[in-house]
Structures are given as structure tokens and as C-alpha cells.
Amino acid sequence: MTDKKYKEISVGEFTKAAEVYETDKGGVYKMCKKDYPDVLAELEKEPFTDLLDCGCGPAPMLTLLHEKYPEKHYTGIDLTPKMIEVAKGKNMEGVELVVGDCENLPFAPESFDVVICCESFHHYPNVQDFFDSVYRVLRPGGRLILRDMTMDNGAVRWFCNHVEIPIFNLFGKGDVRIYGKEDVNRLCNRAGLVMESFERRGFCRLHSVARKPVKGRQKLNIELGDVQETALIPLAIKANESKRANHRIYDAKAIEIIDSLKIDTEKYDRFMSHEGVVARTILFDNEMKKALKKYPNAIVVNIGCGFDDRFSRVDNGQVLWYNVDLPDSIAIRRKCFEERPREFLIEGDLLSENWTNGIPNDRVTIVIAEGLFMYFTGEQVKQILTRISGHFHKGYLLAELMHPFAAKNTEKHDTVKNTNAVFQWGIEDGHELEELCDDFQLLRETSFFEEMKKYTLAGKIGNVFFKKFNDRLAVYRFWE
Ligand SMILES: C[S@@+](CC[C@H](N)C(=O)[O-])C[C@H]1O[C@@H](n2cnc3c(N)ncnc32)[C@H](O)[C@@H]1O
Prior knowledge:
Low-confidence stretches: 216-220
Oligomer: single chain
Strand content: 15-25%
CATH superfamily of the largest domain: Vaccinia Virus protein VP39
Shape: elongated
Number of domains: 2
Largest sheet: 7 strands, mixed
Helix content: 25-40%
Mean pLDDT: 92
Bound molecules: S-adenosylmethionine
Number of helices: 18
Structural class: alpha/beta
CATH topology of the largest domain: Rossmann fold
CATH architecture of the largest domain: 3-Layer(aba) Sandwich
């Protein structure tokens, strides 16, 4: 159904409902009365002067507020002209009532210190536009109080969104979607709002408060090269995974960077990549912890580090950690990560002769190459390996390897296809890397499916049928 059609159905439904909405003949809308005391209590937690009610209907909430606090300034907006007509019929002094679309609020920036939206935003086909618009009209520090329907259970919500709502729309209901906590959080984040609370209250009610930050969003200009941009894929996935209630990995820095850079994660976070990155993070973290147990004062060199924050997850208080990447990535990293003792940033081109300069080589070194080698040619991988064993003398390499079939099909990859990067190198067997540089000896190789099988059916099936086609973590030893 088109956006226009949704809105037409909604206006049709509410034109019929407008006159009876607040009476005993209000049908399902009588239920909305249960929302008003909670919205009022939420509002009363902080002082306010200018309030906007989005999708105000015949203005039941404004009536209540106007009676209790007549000195304040109220505005109501609704798409259904009949609703505004009924609301205007109440002749409330100091209450402005406007026919308009909440997806494009027709008010000056920073006009309100609080916006309420009660049982309305599930009717908006472009709901992100609504959140963006609220961000614009709110003053810094201002609140958005949301009240709507929700379901805790993802499966029930899926059923409502994909079966129940489409059926009801055949009968002219005009609902679009029911949202859960992750949805509201994502919508707020993208708009620049901070979701401060989300509760599921009685009668399947969503009760949420979001705020426009006082300092405003610090916008960083991110311009990254093609391969460097791929670092946004694991970053976006780690941020989104960390925001889940039952997250399998947690990366507070990823959330902070994604939110502060206001990065739309949609094209970087798709199901298979998401599961792969979660699995890879767990496998690399575990391998790293094992290595640091054996060599607690090792040097770790994370080549092509992107925005990875493994240091904070595995630091043992002794390790010296070097993150190496191209200057544009490191420049952004410097802005996002505060300096930490024993962690260093190296601007280096892995294809140059000098990227290892300045990294000590007097201890066992653990080199991490995660999501990296597939973007180089075999010849270039050889060059990097030779540089590693030539400078560091003894240590281990934890490398992500890709199968040649995947390497030939960048355009089929669910997220990398959305960037300009292209895969170049893959090997079927980890021993093939030994042929590029005979200083390296393969110790073990683990398919990401070994981890993914623990979480999803796709992981279980993949582990049985497609294990060798997935990326894997290979551990090599190089020892002079
Ligand atoms: C269930 S009523 C809620 C009315 C009132 N907020 C309450 O809590 O009783 C939903 C309202 O949202 C309005 N609405 C739907 N889509 C809208 C849009 N895009 N912009 C503004 N209002 C919209 C409808 O016209 C309707 O009046």
C-alpha cells in the first residue's frame, strides 16, 4: 500500500470516529482514555511552557491539560480535518489547533519544550520523518513523550504487523505498524534524540520518553576510502547488537560512535553479516584472551583496525596494543576514542615498507587481521605477511579468511555490496596462506558457522551444508 493510501484510510477512519471519539460510542478509542493519566504524570515530572500534541484527535489530552494548567501554551496537530473541527468546537483559549501531517510538522525550529504523541504514530507510514520532525521542533533538552500500542514478544508483533494490520486495513483501519523497544530506540537515534526510557505498561501500552540532547549532535564529517568504509559494517552491527536486550556481544564505543556520527546503519546491518560479525567478534575475542593468558605482556598489532575496540574487552593490564589503519580511518578514530595507556594509533599503509616502524618487536607479537585480507590481492597479502614476519620475528597471526567463491561475488554479499569495496582474495584451505610466506604455520581454522550455529537456524543449517564457504578464523604461528 502507498503512503498516500495509508493516510487516506486513516483520515477516512477518523473522520467517522471524530464526533463519537470521546463518547460511550467511541468503540476501540474508548481505550485511549487509559493513556491520559500516565501521559499527564510523565509530563508533570518536569516544568514546561509550550506543548505540542501530535495526532491530537479531538484533543482529549489538551482538554485535560488546559483545565489543569490553563496558563500554558498548547498546540495540537492532526491530519483529519474533522478531528480538528471537533477540537476547535471546545473553544479552549490559548490552544492552537492545526490540520497537518506529523511527518512534516509545520512549526518553527525549537518551538516546543515538550511534544506528546498518544496513540497516533502507528498510523505514520514514514515514521522516521516524524521523529526527525520532532527533533527539529523541540528545544534542546526538550522531551518527546510517546504512548502507543506495543507487544513484547517479537513473534506476536510480527503477526500483528504482517497479518492482523493488513487484514484490518481491508476494513479501513489505517494502522501501519506496531513498534518495539529496538524500533523506538533506532528511530530516536537516527533523529538525534536519546531514548531515555521505554516501558511496556498495562493493556499492551508503549510508554517511552526521548530527549533532544542539550549540546546537540556533534556532527563529524566522515569521508572514508572504499575499503575503509567497510569498517562501518562491523561498527554498525556491533552497535545494533549491543542495543539489544539479549546482546551476545557488547560494544559501548560502537553505540557511541554510530550515534554521534548519526550513521544510518540500515545498509551496513543485514542478517547474515550481523550474525557473521557477532560470531567473528566472539571467536577473535576468545582466541585473543587465550593468547594473552599464555603471553600476558605480548604486543598486539591490529592491522586494518577500523573502529574495533577489542582492547577494552581483552586488556589484561600489561599488553601493548597498536591499532594500525590508513590516515582517514585513524583521523576519525582519534576523534572518537580517548587516549588510553598502552594503546597506540599508527597511521600506516600496509602496502608500504614502513608501517611497522615505531612498533617494538622485542616480545611475542599477536597480529590481528580481521575483515582485511579479502580486500587485497594474493600478491599484496604476501607482501603484508613478509613485512609481519620480517619485523616481528615471533608470534601469532589471527586472520579472517574468505572462500574464493565468496571473494568472487562481492555483489552478492549482503552488506559489502552496498559499499564501493571489492573482494579480491580468497582461499579454500588455510594452508594456502603458508605458500605465500613460509614463515607462517597454520595451527587451526574455525568456520564462523561453528559459532553461528549456536544462535540461529540459518547458522545450524550453514554449519552442516556450507561450512567451508563461510569466512573462518585461522591461527598461524610465525617463529624465527
Ligand atoms: C487513535 S487517534 C488518537 C487521538 C488522541 N491523540 C488520543 O490519544 O486520544 C489517532 C489520531 O492520529 C491522527 N493521525 C494519523 N496519521 C496522522 C498524521 N500523519 N499526521 C497527524 N495526525 C495523524 C488521526 O487523524 C487520529 O486523530
